[in-house]
């Protein structure tokens, strides 16, 4: 006898999870009572003798796995998706197009710490700022690396510079120089959120560009919309990456797309 059509649907207590294993398809798990999950969130689940971190790709009311064999989710790690619907769609397309296991494709889209189950929303990014009364003349003339680093931090002002920017712009040994500046009481560290406040979801602006970087960005952005090829020449640490990021930001602001190919 069929159920009446007015009967309410069964709640979605099955999650279909992409796991970082070389096997095709998603794996079904049951959500225990009182536990909820949304597509795009990470969960920890039993997989054989192991405990793996995967990403919920879909919710369902039933599974092809017999009820007695269906294992339960151990932990839901995220209240909100770490991979939104558009990204999940792209990953599913890539897995199908390249005939690669969906779980490994999804795992490759997550930073290592998120793959390992670390919290998605941490303290933020470490940023170093020069103190208001810091003066390059307070440093010995022979401390050229410290002096150059302090000048860059003074130029950055209240926005400061993060480790990625310093690593890109400074020569090897910048961490040691930064430690000495901190010991001298000329710079301090603060934590900056990864995203702007207010729920806009927009990334914070990057560091200010120097004259050479501005020239490069302007030359490329003037040619957007037309066919053209540019080669950016500069030694390691000269700030090329920030030029790429600024051009990409301008491209996205115009409603267009950008593709980044990294040979490494």
Describe what this molecule looks like in 3D.
This protein has eight helices and eight strands. The chain has helices at 85-97, 102-108, 112-115, 144-156, 163-169, 174-183, 211-222, 240-253; strands spanning 14-18, 27-30, 42-47, 50-60, 75-76, 125-130, 161-162, 187-192. The strands form two sheets. A five-stranded antiparallel sheet has the order 2-1-4-3-5. It has a three-stranded antiparallel sheet with strand order 7-6-8. β3 and β4 (50-60) form a beta hairpin. The protein starts with 13 loop residues before the first strand and ends in an 11-residue tail after the last helix. The model is unreliable at 1-10 (pLDDT under 50).
């Amino acid at each position: 006898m069929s159920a009446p059509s007015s009967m309410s649907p069964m709640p979605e207590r099955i999650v279909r999870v992409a796991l970082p294993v070389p096997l095709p398809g998603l794996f079904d798990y049951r959500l225990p009572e009182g536990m909820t999950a949304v597509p795009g969130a990470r969960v920890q689940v039993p997989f054989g003798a192991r405990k793996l971190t995967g990403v919920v790709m879909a919710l369902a009311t039933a599974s092809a796995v017999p009820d007695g064999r269906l294992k339960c989710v151990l932990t839901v790690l995220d209240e909100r998706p770490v991979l939104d619907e558009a990204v999940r769609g792209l990953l599913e397309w890539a897995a199908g197009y390249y005939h690669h296991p969906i779980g490994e494709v999804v795992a490759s889209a997550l930073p290592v710490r998120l793959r390992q189950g670390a919290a998605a929303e941490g303290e933020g990014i470490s940023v170093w700022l020069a103190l208001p009364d810091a003066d390059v003349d307070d440093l010995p003339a022979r401390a050229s690396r410290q002096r150059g680093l302090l000048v860059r931090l003074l130029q950055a002002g209240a926005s400061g510079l993060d480790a990625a920017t310093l690593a890109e712009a400074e020569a090897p040994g910048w961490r040691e120089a930064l430690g000495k500046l901190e010991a001298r009481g000329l710079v301090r560290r603060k934590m900056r959120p990864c995203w702007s406040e207010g729920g806009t979801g927009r990334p914070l602006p990057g560091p200010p560009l120097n004259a050479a970087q501005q020239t490069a960005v302007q030359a490329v952005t003037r040619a957007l919309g037309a066919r053209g090829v540019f080669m950016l020449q500069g030694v390691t640490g000269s700030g090329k990456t920030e030029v790429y990021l600024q051009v990409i930001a301008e491209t996205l602001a115009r409603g267009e797309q950008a593709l980044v190919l990294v040979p490494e």
